[in-house]
Amino acid sequence: MSSAALPALPADVARPPYDRDAVRIGIVHLGLGAFHRAHQAVATEAVLAGGDHAWGIAGVSLRSPDTRDALEPQDGLYTVAVRSGEGDRFQVVGAILRQLVAPEDPEAVLALMAAPTTRIVSLTVTEKGYCHLPATGELDRDHPDIVHDLANPHAPRSAPGFLVEALHRRRERGLPPFTVLSCDNLPANGETARRVVSAFAELRGAALGGFVAREVPFPSTMVDRIVPATTDADRALVAGALGREDAWPVMTEPFSQWVIEDRFADGRPDWTVGGARFVADVEPFELMKLRLLNGSHSTLAYLGYLAGHETVSQAMADEPFAALLAGMMSQEIAPTLPPLFGFDLAAYRAELLERFRNPALRHRTWQIAMDGSQKVPQRLLGTIRDRLRAGEPFERLALGLAGWIRYAGGRDERGGTIDVRDPMAARLRALTDGAGEDPARLVDAFLTVQDVFGDDLPADPRFRRAVTEALGRLLAVGSAAAVAERA
Ligand code: CS2
């Protein structure tokens, strides 16, 4: 794949219809992963195709050079493969004009973020990239990257560290701030970003803290598109369809949704041409998506993995799993959601189940199971809190949560080791190791983790009872049977 190869691609492969040399970089994106490339970059591609050339993207990887190493030799071009039971569509995207690797050259990243032409800094750094305490959303001041960035403000490692140093430089130079656009799956993601960034700025000095609090907009967004990690089989599929190698294509579904609060410091692209929607308040959309989609996804990931299902669509083909999810959505989650005017929630739920069934995507349960400590609070615990407040049952949600506890113990149902990826993995493992196979002791041990559960849930006997009972069933009969009991 390269610019020179574009004219020779098969006719049905979409490609940039604009002159890439005429595009200026207006957006710096932190977190150059597959999700960004299949979501915001595709919407931005539509803006560029529409003739507004002020919004090219410079993509920054905060850790690994892998994406840059794959894309740079391809002139930043890559393929988006949209897959479903109906067939595949391919689009080569040109919106990402530069690729940077922050640890190699933090100064280059800061210089670009502080450039007058940069008007938006967007983020997909995953939940843990915010360096916050998941239970409260506050900056984790003891986080090693935060400690590092406070001592070395000119060579930061964390997203808050980069944002604050770049904003500091803009302020010194009398430039307007950029808009910080969080595109991560966090509740009130803009507000979460604002809290950690302004707390970090405040630690660097009251004047900088005040500037961030007063001048920098942090609109919230709801992002939705399923993007499983790319495999070698996917690369082979794309090479076959394009007649060229693409070192790192991204695989996704037809569905895509992006809802954005319309609060920008210095202009923005008209992402509506790429299907986005601008609203005054994103929160109801975010809650709906995080609770219905991600809450179900995580439930399916833990329970499905334990039952031996490798992918989401395999788990969905196991009827009790699909029934558990349908019941959880309609009876336990939907009643907690604020009404969204003109929105058909039942149709949305049905569509979600169809999306999870997509037979053309191989979305591994193990991938979704990652980083549970960072995901569970907004995906399951908020919903459970609302159910407790309303005095209503939540046994399916409790089973999903028990699935996480069982999974985090690191042993599957056949005694094999689970490769648990989570910033708290060692801590959680130690808790479960001490508690053996006794559900009550396991739950007691887990509920000491206030960073995840807060102090309210551990103090609620109804919560403790429901989770202990669910975990008891998981341990006694295994995941498949426990799911069938509650389906
Ligand atoms: C998934 C999400 O990996 C995960 O945790 O639940 O990435 C999910 O696919 C997206 O949020 C869909 O928009």
From TrEMBL:
<dbReference type="InterPro" id="IPR013328">
    <property type="entry name" value="6PGD_dom2"/>
</dbReference>
<dbReference type="InterPro" id="IPR008927">
    <property type="entry name" value="6-PGluconate_DH-like_C_sf"/>
</dbReference>
<dbReference type="Pfam" id="PF08125">
    <property type="entry name" value="Mannitol_dh_C"/>
</dbReference>
<dbReference type="GO" id="GO:0016616">
    <property type="term" value="F:oxidoreductase activity, acting on the CH-OH group of donors, NAD or NADP as acceptor"/>
</dbReference>
<dbReference type="GO" id="GO:0019594">
    <property type="term" value="P:mannitol metabolic process"/>
</dbReference>
<dbReference type="InterPro" id="IPR000669">
    <property type="entry name" value="Mannitol_DH"/>
</dbReference>
<feature type="domain" description="Mannitol dehydrogenase C-terminal">
    <location>
        <begin position="281"/>
        <end position="474"/>
    </location>
</feature>
<dbReference type="InterPro" id="IPR036291">
    <property type="entry name" value="NAD(P)-bd_dom_sf"/>
</dbReference>
<keyword id="KW-0560">Oxidoreductase</keyword>
<dbReference type="InterPro" id="IPR050988">
    <property type="entry name" value="Mannitol_DH/Oxidoreductase"/>
</dbReference>
<protein>
    <submittedName>
        <fullName>Mannitol dehydrogenase family protein</fullName>
    </submittedName>
</protein>
<dbReference type="InterPro" id="IPR013131">
    <property type="entry name" value="Mannitol_DH_N"/>
</dbReference>
<keyword id="KW-0520">NAD</keyword>
<dbReference type="Pfam" id="PF01232">
    <property type="entry name" value="Mannitol_dh"/>
</dbReference>
<feature type="domain" description="Mannitol dehydrogenase N-terminal">
    <location>
        <begin position="26"/>
        <end position="272"/>
    </location>
</feature>
<dbReference type="InterPro" id="IPR013118">
    <property type="entry name" value="Mannitol_DH_C"/>
</dbReference>
<dbReference type="InterPro" id="IPR023027">
    <property type="entry name" value="Mannitol_DH_CS"/>
</dbReference>
